[in-house]
Amino acid sequence: MDVSDFDDIPGTTVFTAQRSRKGYPLNQFCMSLMKAENRTRFKSDERAYVDEWPMTQAQKQAVLTRDYNAAIREGGNIYFLAKIFATDGLSFQQAVSTMTDMTVEEYAAMMLAGGRSIEGNRSIKEHR
Amino acid sequence: MAKITAGLTTSHVPAIGAAIDLGKTGTDYWRPLFEGYEWTKQWIKEEKPDVIFLVYNDHASAFSMEMIPTFAIGCADSFEPADEGYGPRPVPVVEGHADLAWHIAQEMILDEFDLTIMNKLEVDHGLTVPLSLVYGQPETWPVKVIPLAVNVVQYPPPTGNRCYLFGQSLRRAIESYPEDLNVQVWGTGGMSHQLQGPRAGLINKEFDTAFLDNLTADPELLRKMPHFEYLRESGSEGVEMVMWLIMRGAMGPSIKELYRFYHVPASNTAVGHIVVRPEN
Fold this sequence. Notes:
- The complex is a heterodimer of chains A (128) and B (280).
- Chain A is mostly helical.
- Helix content of chain A is 55%, strand content 0%.
- Chain A folds into 2 domains: 15-89, Protocatechuate 4,5-dioxygenase, Chain A; 91-128, no CATH class.
- The radius of gyration of chain A is 16 Å and the shape is globular.
- By secondary structure, chain B is an alpha/beta fold.
- Chain B has one domain: Protocatechuate 4,5-dioxygenase, Chain B (3-Layer(aba) Sandwich), CATH 3.40.830.10.
């Protein structure tokens, strides 16, 4: 198998070497939010804080707009991005739901009903 | 001699830790989950292990992208709870067993498992939530813990087979330690869950149930399962389940299942929990 096979899994981004290299500055920025004083500085002027990091404009924009699908596309990893939504006081469920086509309430209801079904979510090319 | 007396696996969802810390375990949402651990809470009081070898993964807490060890063993005397962005969990400092940890590191490196030795390690929810689920909220943890942090964040994690072989070597290392110690091996993480992208919220009860069954019935099948199958069938974060195979490998060829619990959901995740006894 080849890592490109992962692209057949619908709606899923595997954190491969290539993505890790692309996302390095973004993920390291996220790590900086582990420190309370950095969270305070970030919250007081987000643009100025992200400009201190050697991120691409697309990465900075994803952070500032809290577009987590874009952040993942730009090499972000969810456990690192979690530092951003923790700084916002959001739970994993609240933040993760924003990456789907559901509202937070719809997403929470889906989870209570047993979660998203695997049927139809295995393979893009095999339609299963 | 030290002896491995039992194995345990459990999911380690951060929201479970938050529910405990904020006193929400009795709510309609959380009560069914915590009831599922009552059996184990009683059982552990009778078992009284001296040391838990606790396999977990760090979630960008102790390890940034600067260093990504595949297997890192905590050899310090104690481990502080990490601040994961919400402030550190209000749980006791985790006490290590440095002498046994160093012994394991030495034996396993000579057995050709190239462990990273951690003399400083802050432990996140991956390690502290399983302790809270089983021991509740004591003033101090009534057991010493040797953390083993496994990389499952950066692809590729170790294969299931490598984890199983690791467990076998771990058993040899623990059982060559001269002091009489009652040691348990815990594997944590999983079960099916996906925390990212449009497929987030994936749960695959059929896959999880088969995985729980095959820990006892057919571990050889689990050893051979490729990462791709975990990623596709159990979600991008379901691949954490390779860590359960370290526990399984450490138990020896045959085990008896003592207890099982499965519950959906805890936040985004299917919670699986199993307690086993080695049979030889």
